[in-house]
Design goal:
With 131 residues, the chain is mostly helical. The protein folds into two domains: 75 residues, Serine Threonine Protein Phosphatase 5, Tetratricopeptide repeat (Alpha Horseshoe); 50 residues, no CATH class. The protein is elongated, with a radius of gyration of 16 Å. The model has no long low-confidence stretch (mean pLDDT 92).
């Protein structure tokens, strides 16, 4: 079954289709799939997180941050969304807010990737201080 050509129009199937499109860097089409999924289920936090990922791919950071905020508001235990939110904030140079998001993710799951990303904030701050 190819999720891009699947005829299942459930929120889960549309979310899966969006993820497959993101993997192919087809972010605008992926965004459309996530929006369709969210039209069916506006509380689908995974689709909000994935929508934000697609928006990041389109360099639409403000909209992405709002979508990550929605994902974690719907499910405060969603560690991947907290991590993704932190990564976006770090990319935007909002290091204090990024650390807060990383801390939320790490409190839920002490994934080494999360710990490394948080440690990188300190390095980035040091590099900026020396410029």
């Amino acid at each position: 079954m190819n999720p891009i050509h699947d005829h299942d129009h459930s929120a889960a199937a549309l979310n899966a289709r969006g993820c497959a499109l993101c993997e192919q860097n087809q972010f605008a089409q992926a965004l459309d799939s996530f929006d369709q999924a969210l039209a069916l289920d506006s509380t689908y936090c995974t689709a909000w997180n994935n929508r934000a990922n697609a928006l990041c791919g389109l360099n639409r950071q403000a909209e992405a941050l709002a979508a990550y905020d929605r994902a974690v508001a719907l499910n405060p235990q969603y560690h991947q969304a907290w991590f993704n939110r932190g990564k976006l904030l770090a990319d935007m140079g909002a290091y204090g807010n990024a650390v807060e998001s990383y801390n939320r993710a790490i409190a839920l799951v002490a994934d080494p990737i999360y710990l490394h990303a948080k440690a990188n904030i300190w390095v980035k701050k040091q590099l900026i201080a020396t410029v």
